[in-house]
Structures are given as structure tokens and as C-alpha cells.
Amino acid sequence: MAAPVMDTCHVSCCANRTPNVVSWGRGGLIAFGTCNSVALYNPQVLIFTACAVCLGHSGPVCAVDGLSLSSSQLLVASASSDSTVKLWTSSSDTGTIGSVIITSLAVPVLACGGDDSRVHLYVQLNGQFQRLLTLSGHEDWVRCVEWATKDGELWLASCSQDCLIRVWRLFAKAATEPVQQTDAVLKMKENVFQVSGDEFAVTLETVLAGHENWVYGIHWQPPCVKGDSVEQPLKLLSASVDKTMILWGPEEDSGMWVELVRVGEVGGNTLGFYGCQMSPDGFMILAHAFHGALHLWHCDSNQGEWRPSVVISGHFNAVQDLSWDPEGDFIITVGSDQTTRLFTPWTRNGRSEITWHEISRPQIHGYDMQCLTMVGRFQFVSGADEKVLRVFKAPRNFVESFANISCTPLEKLLGSDLPEGASTPALGLSNKAVFQGMNPLNSLATGEFALSNQYKESYFQPLKLTEPPTEDDLLQNTLWPEVQKLYGHGFEMFCLASDSERTVVASACKASKSEHAAILLWSTTSWKQLQSLPCHSLTVTQMAFSPNGRLLLAVSRDRTWSLWRRGNPDTDTEASFSLYANTSKDTAVHTRIIWSCDWSSDSKYFVTSSRDKKVGLGESVTPCSSVLDVGDSATAVSICPYLCSDQSYLLAVGLENGKIVLYKWRPSEDLSSGSDWSRCGETDACQSHTLTVKRLRWRPRPGRAGHGGNEERAWVQLASAGADHVVKIFNIKISAL
Asked: SS3 of 382, please?
């Protein structure tokens, strides 16, 4: 079997913003829901998979669990906000369904927690689940229930929005109970029931109070193998909206349940945890937060202390745009989750393994992010659902951390007069620079920062990072200062582009009339508006400067493209652009909205892609390729800056269905046959996005980021952003194409 053309190098994603959407399997894999996919984390390898789809609920599914009835049969229960619990069965003959809470006590027992503040127990009799018992005690919604088995007894834990955890013990009653001959003994109330003639009892073992807010998740430590037997440790992990996880367990002497370990964060900007899991060996614990972030702690076996660990991260809403830095060492992404994120390879001394991680969150905004463009090694412009463009420049603290993590000499990166970091005022949208020696507490207490004490500020604390930062540090200590605002557009920003010399930025906003659809040009030295380029009648959806900087291509929702030519840049650094060529409704190549465009590295050809499923290349003002039908709406397109071994151009096309397809194109005189195009690769089901591909960008340098050696020239890298909240990076061996 031939090796795949596209090899997935990195997948950035996070958990869905819903309770208990993460599970840590006995084999060591972490599974979590991300958008409408399931991600498997191990912990550097990510794959997306779906084994079966079960349809039947009329409302959102909020809980699911499974029980293996035999080596070939699986029973799955799902609970929904439609007030129903559905049971599903699957056998090896029909395919396995991937992995409400079920356990087995001779027969399957189902525990369901509801918004009636009760836990309901069901047992399977004669093929049907029947309600057996109702456990009362909680005073608010029951958010999670989980079983454990120890010494032939069942232990059931439940947690609630009343901030409490209740632990119940279910056991078989003896045929005859000894009569107490001594004084009266305090005994817990028993709920007794019968199953198939056998008598069982449920008692409340303990009530755990330690959280200060809703408890969303609980998880028993998985059973461990000791010698020839399997033991179930009586340790229970809980996660709460109070931003903490607690590990509970009984004392050896008294048997009283106590708090063993507490981890989490004090203060900060996060909104607490939605669920928790523990590794099979019990030495790592994981929580997922309101904004989808994973928080991982590991137990230091030497000192017995719990410490934060490096974990995967990503956007929790659609990723709208991305850009490589000019040297190809990192990517910056923006998303509808109102954040801008920076990812780079982590190079560890003495280890050949290289993994990608988020090391900075330069912008945490109050509007959904829409677009960005790099205007220097450590400077970018971003646009959001607002009329303002914002310019950011990296602080000293980030540059030092980037040098440590990427193993790059610091002297090659540092500039002069850089601020130390940035902080954001309460209720503010602008990141303010913090300089060395400045006390952010004092600076935020004066001037425009003088707000009521009821609003918590985000204070910057300098970090000396040698590994990727934790989620808490990403939120608070990796911001970039905002150095400029650009005003001029009348509606929300939609797209940005910059020339290869990083001297001019082009911007466009949402528009329903021609007067608002003009492209604005900005100088990156003075940050003044240079020109307004009117041509289109509706929103300009994407723009691209030619690599030589002399041409600007724009495509629009009005189904046309425009080509603008620059004056003499050799004599005038801010030479004006004039309309060179454009299509009209009568001459348009595309019949639907044009989503994307790009240039070849020699500035000779440009490409456009459209909702009409067509991709075409142009040279100057005339088409130079046959029209390529890609079979689905072509939402993103990008031309590789390096030629294939046969001197053909390599293009990546992103589709609305999430697939990315690679094509080779060679100029041909006969455009009617379509022989100028050849399909050379595509993403498979696991590699593809599950929703629309929003952006494709090739690395501006050959080779794989973070790697070295002459053999790297055989490789190119492609980054993609999707509406499925995911950013992916692919390795492609161009020498083999």
C-alpha cells in the first residue's frame, strides 16, 4: 500500500463547551468531543474517528455510557434533554459503537441523575429496564453519576449544583443478619430492594463538601493491577465551576472521607471546570474548562507534589484565518472565539521529538475575530466584527520565551525598546504595554484604568518559559501590546492582506453597497491611509498581493475579481495602485461568490475558487487554464511557493465538506481537454476537517518547521483552518509528486 501523500503533523483543537465531554480510556487514550467530531489524544498524536452514528433523540444528547455484555455485544445508554434515556445494542457483526452510567450486578444497572435533584436506578429484567429505586438528598440538578466496583459491592457517586458530592454503597443483603446483643448502634438508613429473588440494599456512605460552586464532574480512579488481582482504589476526583479539582478518599484509620489533593487556579479569567478524568495509573488528572481548554496535572513520584503539565489546546469556535510568520517558524490564527493564538514547534534539547504547541495568546478580544496578516517577524494586524483594525507587536517576554522553546539564539530575535509584556484593563479591549520596572498594579490603578474594585484586572507577570505555558498563563501573561488602531471602514472587518515587503496593508469590510466595498491601503511605517480602491459592489472576500509586490488581486461576493497594478515602487515606496483589469457580470468566470484567491511564486499566475465548485487560473487579464470542477464548493485555495519535481505548480483546494485536495497544474495550449490539471492527493476521512475549510496557507520556506538538514528541502508544509474549530498542519513530500 502506497504511503499517503499528506501526513498530519499537528492538530490543534479543544473540548466542546459542555459538561463531561472528556473520557480517559484504560489504554491511555484521551477521547473528547470537539465541534461535531471525536478527538483521540495520546498525547502527541491526534486522530478523528466515528465508528457509528445513533439517531433517535429529539434534543441535545447530554450523557452517554456503555457496558460490554459479552466479547461481541455492547450495550449503550444515552440521555437527552428531551427527557428520555435510550438504550442501544451493537454486536461485532454489525460494527461497534464507541464508548447515564451503566454497571453490572448480575444484571445491568443504570443510574440516571436528573433536574429533579434525584438519582434514579434502573435494572434490566426480561429484556426491559425498569425503575428500581430513587435516591434523594441533593437539592439541585444532579450533574454527573459514576459507578465503581470494590469487593463485590457497587459504589455510586453523584454530584450536583448544590455544590455537594454524595457517595452511595450498593451491596447484597445476607440471608440472615445477626441480632445485636449490645447497646444500640448508629446505623445508616438502608434502601432495600429485590432483583430476581435476591435482596440488595443501598446506603449513603458519605457527603463530601469542599467545593464553593456547582460540581459538574466526578470520576473514580480506574482499577489497577496488583499481582494477579485487580483492585479498585477508593479515590474519587471531582471538578467544579469554582476552578478547582479535588481528589477525595477515606482515611486508613478512621475510614472518614477527606480531601487528599486540591488543584486548580486562584483568580484569573477562566470560568471553572466542566468535567474531570484520571489516567489509568492514577498519576495524572485532567479537567476541561468552560472555554474548552484542557488542564493537566501530574504527580511527581519523587516529591509527591501535583504539578501542571503541557497539554494540547485550540480554538473553541470556528477558525477564520491564519498566517505564517515570514520565516515560517510559527503560525498565528484567529477565530470566532474572540482569540488570536500563536503555535510553534517545541524543540527539546537532547530529544529528536518535535511537537507543536500554543505558546502565546496575543489577543483576547470582545468581538469575534475575522482576519489577520503578518507585517513583520513579530508584528501583525487583525480585524474583528468591529470597524477598527488593530496592530500588535510582540513584547520582550514573548521573544525570550519563543527563543527558549524553539532553541533559537536570542540575539537574532530581540529588537530595541521592546515592552516587557501587556495587560488588559477591566472592560477594555486594548492591550496596554508593560515596561520593565513598571508595576502593573500601579499602572492599572490610574488614568483610564481607574475603575471600580468590583472589576478584576488582568495583571501581567513576566514568565521564563522553557516549555509551552499552561492555560492560566496563556490567558493572562502572553498578551501582545496593541501599538496602533486604524479607522476608516464603515462596517465589520472581513479580510486583510500585506505585500511581501511588509510595507502596505490592504483591508476590506462587509458591504452590501459599492460605497462600502472599497479596499483601503495603509502604510506600515506611518499607519496612515494611503488609498481607497473602489471597484466591487459587494463584500471583498479575500485579497492577495503578488510576491513581487506589484499587483493586488481581490475577489468578491459580487462574483467578480479585480486586479490592481502598483506604480513604480523603486522610486516611490508608497506608490499608488490603479485598476489594471477586472471582470464584470458579463465577463465573470464564476457564477457564484468567489471565496478565495492566491498567486504563484513567480507572480505570473493567479488562482480563484468559488462556491460554483470551480477553480481557475489567470495570467494578467486572460484565463490560462481549463476550468477545474472540484465537486464541491471551493472555499479556500493556495499555491505552493515551490515547484514539483516535474516543474508543475502545486495547488491545495479546501472544500465546504472539509476535504483538502492537492492538484498539479502545468501551462497548456489546449485548454479544452482539461489535461493541464492532475489530482495528486487528498485528505482521508480522519485528516479532513468535518466542516468548511476556511483558510489554507503554505509555509513560506521549504522543509518542516523545527527540523533541520539538507533533506528538508524535499518537504513542504500546509496549514489549514476550519469551521470545525480545528487548525491542522500537513507535511507533504513535494519531491515525490
From this structure: strand
